Amino acid sequence: MNRKFRRNFFLAFGVLFILLLVLIAHPIFYLVKTAWNDRNQIVSTPPGKINDASRLDETSVAKIWKIPANEKAAEEQLAALLQFARTNHLKVSIAGARHSMGGHVIYPDGIVIDMLPFNRMELDGTNLVLHVQAGARWSEVIPFLNKHGLSVEVMQSNDDFSIGGSLSVNCHGWQFNRPPIDCTVQSFRLMLADGTIVKCSRTENQELFSLVLGGYGLFGIILDADLRIVPNEKFRIERFIVPASDYVKTLAKKTSGTNDIAMVYGRLRVTANDFLQEGIINIFHRLPSNNLLVTPLGQSKSRELPRVIFRGGVNDDYGKELRWNAEKYFSPVLSGDIFERNAILYEPSDWFSDHSTNSTDILVECFVPPKQFEPFLAELRKIIPQNHADLLNVTVRDINRDDDSFLRYADKNIISLVMLFSQVRDATGEEKMSKLTQEIIAAALRHDGRYYLPYRLHATPEQFNEAYPQADKFFELKRRYDPDELFQNEFYLKYGK
User: Is the residue at 340 inside a domain?
Assistant: First the structure.
């Protein structure tokens, strides 16, 4: 009896061990293969040309001019450069980190102003205001503020972007119950087309203040800005797995009746099985604190494994399933449940971006009222598979009504769906992506929504005007403030003429 028991025990143990090896071997082999094939194949843009984050907009330009770091020299030389452009009938575009995807920082054969060297910062700790030049990136701002126990009030979910670029697209992020970044701007200085410098705020040059925030560099050059800042804090995260049809209802229930919520974001399942049918809601609660939180940001954490898991989902449903299960089941165990605000924001987008020569990652973002979230999703469940599109990720955000920006996308409280697609970098891929984007935008418009403007210029002029009915007045005012139309880009060429 004892011998038989031992034999059966070892037999069962052996079978379980083999099954465990099989279960572990498949994902390990898959991840090793993905890592092996994940090579950085991106080549530098040739001299005399410029591109943006899409890697689909390589364009010849007359000059790429780096602004001097010194403020006085920068202002004098910028004014002279604008005069040179007018005299020589050249157009001017303004670039920071160039993370827009539709030629918003490019004008063919024009002058591109590279603002990145212009990155000085000063802190008014008493009034919690950061004075920052437009070329600074958030990756420079966050460590600067962190030393003082302070943090950014509203920004994107990654830190690669410049301050001037963020204001020009009127960005938003995971910050809960907040409008876009324009609500944090106290004032900024703007160089107009004639070289003069004006201060813009809610009380001084208010119309320009409204036009420039979300104005895509068409009214002048943002030199610097005064931004409201907040204390750095510790958060405790709550995660909820919900049917996508219950996302809005669950979010409202879990966030009502409390004022301790700092950030919220969601993910949607993108696997072929249960496509866009399941979601994860992440809610960050503030932990009580009486002191400014001054801790080192530390070394940038390794993103190699998360990158491999993410990139493994490109054109591969097993990879998408693997990533979803990792985020759903293992992320809470591996990441823990206590986070610092600055550590969350101090994260580059490059860790997950496409580094291959044959394809690129393209964003499409739409906004709908909360009540239209599920009806809009129902259309996406049909549109995306019908177009054989490779959807890698959907992030969900809530955004409060924007009362500051003229060309506003948040004219009411809205839900944002940030969709990341993998696209082949050829004419066929561009044609397919254009068709898909137009169908997605059409669906958003049918549900009282609109789309975000910093991405590929695939929307038709009719769709643009329907989504932004204030556009005609916006471009009329652009030509009033810039009568020679000195500041131009490909966005203006398509929709503003």
Answer: yes
* 439 in the same domain as 293: yes
**Same-domain check for residues 158 and 205:** yes
Question: Residue 372: CB partners within 8 Å, gap ≥ 6?
Answer: 447, 448, 449
Say which residues have a Cβ less than 8 Å from residue 425's Cβ, sequence separation at least 6: 55, 56, 357, 358, 359, 360
The angle at the Cα of 285, spanning 281 to 287, to the nearest 5 degrees, equals 155
Indicate the average pLDDT of the chain. Answer: 93
Indicate if 166 and 308 belong to the same structural domain: no
Answer whether residue 24 is part of any domain: no
pLDDT in tens, 238-263: 999 999 999 999 999 999 988 999 99
Going by C-alpha positions, the residue among 199, 202, 164 that lies closest to residue 183 is 202
pLDDT of 432-458, one tens digit each? 999 999 999 999 999 999 999 999 999
Q: Is-contact 93 84, C-beta < 8 A?
A: no
Amino acid, res. 318: Y
266 & 219 share domain: no
Whether the CA torsion 408, 400, 228, 418 is positive or negative: it is negative
Instruction: Provide the pLDDT for residue 144.
Output: 97
Cα gap 94→486, rounded to integer Å: 11
Residue 255 covered by a domain: yes
Tokens of residue 300, six digits: 């940038």
Do 193 and 340 sit in the same domain of this protein?
A: no
Q: Which domain holds residue 122?
A: 63-231+471-495
The answer for 7, left when phi > 0, alpha when psi is -120 to 50, beta otherwise, is alpha
Pair 351, 246: CB distance under 8 Å: no
The verdict on residue 67 lying in a domain is yes
**What integer pLDDT is reported at residue 1 of this predicted model?**
46
Structure tokens at 190: 């703007």
How far is Cα 449 from Cα 467, in angstroms, rounded to an integer?
Answer: 7
Instruction: List CB contacts of 209: < 8 A, sequence separation 6 or more.
Output: 185, 187, 188, 200, 201, 202, 404
Length of the chain: 497
- Please say whether the beta carbons of 208 and 219 come within 8 A: yes
Rounded Cα distance between 86 and 483, Å, is: 11
Q: What is the CATH number of the domain that holds 424?
A: 3.40.462.10
Same domain, 215 and 227: yes
pLDDT at residue 156 tops 60? yes
What's the predicted TM-score (pTM) here?
0.94
